[in-house]
Amino acid sequence: MKFFFLPVLLSLMLTGVQSVSGANATTAINPDTLTRQQLQDFGEEAKIRIKAFVDYLGIIADKDRPFDERNGAIRQALLMFKKDVSVEVSNINTGGRTILPLRQYLEKIKALKYDKVQITNFESVRLDDWKKQPDGSYQATGLFFQAFKAWRNGVPVYQDKTTKKIEADLRVREDPFYKEKNWMVLLGNITVDATVRDDN
Fold first, then answer.
1. In this predicted model, what pLDDT tens digit does every residue of 87-101 receive, in sequence order?
2. Are the C-beta atoms of 119 and 54 separated by less than 8 Å?
3. How far is it, in rounded angstroms, from Cα 58 to Cα 117?
4. Of the residues 17, 28, 35, 99, which has the fewest C-beta atoms closer than 10 A?
């Protein structure tokens, strides 16, 4: 996916949030008014965002792209998340796991010591049902499936497939584009569910 398309995708997603919320100001800020259809729509939006995040990872890791483009992808990815989000990473060689702040994780992806890195989705994103919280927000957990492949001197030297869990948070927020309060989905913490070496 080309970088120039992704900011447009993000803009469309945020515009979609407003249209789902409706023009009525009370509807936009009342936590008790979301219908089943609206929750389904927000679920689809959350899945789009999760897939877009992995697309951004692919851009950030792509050493053939200009630095400005890769840094732009980092900025755009951060816009889809809440503040102070963490990402769990796994090492298949040691079995260890590490938790990093999101920005640090993205910077490490950009600086990986390989000649070439490819990060892609290998299955469709999944999301469970929204669960209403005491504060009126809704929480859901998604699954995404990340394939990682790295080369040195034109030869593949490492590849794995990781299933990751990601939080999705739906609540009334101030829209950064329209400066109005609307229901919006942002992504949250990411944890590793399973990592396997991919020898194919």
1. 999 988 888 899 999
2. yes
3. 8
4. 35
